[in-house]
UniProtKB/TrEMBL annotation:
Stored Pfam families: Tetraspanin (PF00335)
Organism: Acropora cervicornis (Staghorn coral)
PANTHER family in alphabetical order: TETRASPANIN, TETRASPANIN 26A, ISOFORM B-RELATED
A GO cellular-component term linked to this record: plasma membrane
Main location: membrane
Localization (cell): Membrane
Its membrane topology: Multi-pass membrane protein
Protein name: Tetraspanin-33
Taxonomy, superkingdom: Eukaryota
Amino acid sequence: MAQEGKVSRFLKYTLFVFNLLYWCIGGVMIGVGLWAVTQKSDYNTFSSISTDPAAVMVAVGGFIFIISFFGTVGALRENICFLKTYMIVMIIIVILEVIAGLLAFAFWPEISVGTGALNVGRGPEHFRPRQGGILGNPVSWKHPCKQLPTGIVTLNKISAKILT
């Protein structure tokens, strides 16, 4: 039986390991985001920092990095201040996720109309390869030297060409 004021070792190290994993993921996100920021000097299509995916990745990675640091150190050292800060931030995140889900459910018609022009669900049905794009014309996986037909091609025609 656990003594009063002591935390079980399993719970302590489970929280530590998961937060250490999230801390590493946050660090990787920061690194990838910073790499993307430095590599996109030629592409200035995103002039606003709030819509720049690389800047958003750095910001989210930094947030995850800091919050998981509170959880990691708080669990390892049994620091009540860090654990309470971690708990409060996690509760706020869960509440915001629930609110976002409820808003998405409440405003679903507006959201579905907004994404209707993208044909999100129809990607596999209609495939239009770009002529002379970054990868050039698409080629068959089975026969790498054989080019697939260009234009709007259904998935059935592509799979028939690949399987033959």
